[in-house]
From TrEMBL:
It is a multi-pass membrane protein. InterPro entries: ABC_transp_permease, ABC_transptr_urea_perm_UrtC, LivM-like. Keywords: Cell membrane, Membrane, Transmembrane, Transmembrane helix. Signal peptide: none annotated. Pfam families: BPD_transp_2. This is Leucine/isoleucine/valine transporter permease subunit. PANTHER family: HIGH-AFFINITY BRANCHED-CHAIN AMINO ACID TRANSPORT SYSTEM PERMEASE, SLR1201 PROTEIN. GO terms for cellular component: plasma membrane. NCBIfam families: urea_trans_UrtC. It comes from the Bacteria.
Length: 379
């Protein structure tokens, strides 16, 4: 007798994995770390948004993007623009030549706020722009590339070039974007001071809740028919196309989803850290984001989160302990994980840990001695 495949959102092992991650994020880390370290891990979690999106794009869809920092940065800059305008009231900027505009605009001799900054006075518009701007940009790239069947290494190189171009553009337009320094000195969110310890702790939990919302969305996509089609496209794209499906549309959709996840992470990064700069947009951070995904396991959304946490924790630890050698240490960690565990941390769990857990769950309680068994039965 055959059984129909399960349509459940979670298998038992997946549900256990989500619970374990939730306990780590919402209980263990807040209880074990001081505010400074907790804020650091909050920053690490913002990178996990990008890694989860890469699992869908690269792991499921076979779309390797080396420009996810673009969408991370766009989301972060949209949030930073709102926060900067809130901090640039005429009262706070009275010493400037032109009060009421951001300080870097005044330094660059601008005398009025650019028209495209004006809508970011609205928090509602900012929340909309955080998602809409990166998604529209990714849609344009996706249509231009996937409609022409550009993929593989060519697509990866093009996204890398886009990251380089955007970085140069941001740095070059210093009067409008803050240039190489970025947008700094962000103070309040609708009057709430985001620089205090209590605010950083609250933002950490908000960050965690939004990450789990993205994880649930990614899990739903993976378990849906779309998720199965993405895997089929990754393995046999021509066969899926000959079956009557528009492969380009599916690629565009999942690429936009990855951009949206990265943008949310960028916005939360700006709130968590208090600034945004082009150093998070370019080629190097984009490649690092791929490393997070690879170390965690490009086929596992939970593994991507652990990969982002581990790599960034190692980066911080190495840079604090060995400031001259931390890049070598980080590179050695990446090489060791990839060579020893090709499927990343998720592969370690699947191959080594999960079988033992299943074995323990299947093992029943020890048998009672005969006398005790009879007494138990009599009761």
């Amino acid at each position: 007798m055959t059984t129909a495949p399960s349509n459940r959102l979670f298998t038992k092992s997946e549900a256990i994995g989500f619970v374990i991650l939730a306990v780590i994020v919402f209980a263990i880390l807040p209880l074990a770390l001081d505010t400074f370290r907790l804020n650091l891990f909050g920053k690490y979690l913002t990178y996990a948004f990008v890694a989860v999106g890469l699992v869908l794009c690269w792991g499921a869809g076979g779309i390797l993007s080396l420009g996810q920092g673009v969408f991370f940065g766009l989301g972060g800059y949209c949030m930073a623009m709102y926060l900067k305008l809130e901090a640039s009231t005429p009262e706070n900027t009275s010493i400037q030549s032109t009060p009421g505009i951001p300080d870097f605009m005044d330094w660059n001799q601008l005398t009025a706020l650019p028209w495209w900054w004006e809508p970011f006075h609205s928090f509602s518009f900012t929340l909309f722009a955080v998602i809409a701007v990166p998604v529209v940009f990714s849609f344009i790239i996706g249509v231009a590339m996937f409609r022409r069947r550009v993929g593989g290494v060519y697509f990866a190189i093009i996204t890398q070039a886009v990251a380089a171009i955007l970085t140069i553009l941001i740095i070059g337009q210093q009067g409008f974007t803050g240039g190489v320094n970025g947008i700094t000195d962000l103070r309040t969110l609708k009057g709430w001071d985001i620089r205090t310890d209590s605010a950083k702790e609250i933002l950490y939990f908000v960050n965690g809740i939004m990450l789990f919302a993205c994880l649930l969305t990614a899990q739903f996509i993976r378990k849906s028919k779309l998720g199965r089609l993405l895997i089929a496209m990754r393995d046999q794209e021509d066969r899926v196309r000959f079956s009557g499906y528009d492969v380009a549309n599916f690629k565009i959709f999942v690429f936009c989803i990855g951009a949206a996840f990265a943008a949310i992470g960028g916005a939360m990064f700006t709130l968590q850290v208090g600034f945004m700069s082009p150093s998070f947009v370019g080629i190097v951070p984009s490649i690092e984001m791929v490393i997070f995904c690879a170390v965690g396991g490009r086929l596992s959304i939970l593994g991507a989160v652990y990969g982002a946490l581990l790599v960034n924790w190692a980066k911080t630890t190495f840079s604090e302990s060995f400031p001259e050698l931390w890049l070598l240490g980080l590179g050695a960690l990446f090489i060791a994980v990839v060579m020893a565990f090709p499927d990343g941390l998720a592969g370690v769990y699947t191959d080594k840990i999960a079988p033992r857990i299943r074995k323990l769950l299947k093992r029943g309680p020890p048998a009672l001695p005969a006398a005790n068994a009879q007494e138990t039965a009599a009761e």
